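To whoever is on call:

I kicked off a structure prediction for a single chain this morning and the downstream step that reads the tokens threw a length-mismatch warning. I double-checked the sequence; it's 133 residues and nothing unusual in it as far as I can see. Pasting both halves so you can look.
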Amino acid sequence: MQDLPGPGPAGIQGHRLLDSRETRETEPMKIKLGPADFAEKEMRGYEVGKRSLCVARINGRYKGLDDWCNHAGCLLSGGRLEGNMVVCPCHEVGFDMDTGKNETSPGVCDDQPTVKVAVENGELLIELPDQDV
């Protein structure tokens, strides 16, 4: 068992014991990438902890997914945008920027993991699980 701070019975502050069957949810870490100053349809690559991320501005919204294409490891941020899809510069595989879904060649490689991108006080922010940082 692990002793964690938290409300006790009837909302009284105290400690709550967790047994081995319970897991503790960790809050994702918020990370600033830099200024939210992209032109429309601009993409940039970022190294963040253990991840490489491709961030793009599409229709005024910032969107992100893993930058390393899971097909051959090329950087998607070096590719091009076609509508809401980023197209890999190496083998023309296209991924939806909202879902990460492989839209053009589903049999060739998997979907790309996505990341939520927010703008706060003119700065781009992402949230990553602790294990990725």
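Update from on-call: the warning came from a stale cache, not from the record. Cleared it. Sanity check on the structure: The radius of gyration is 19 Å.
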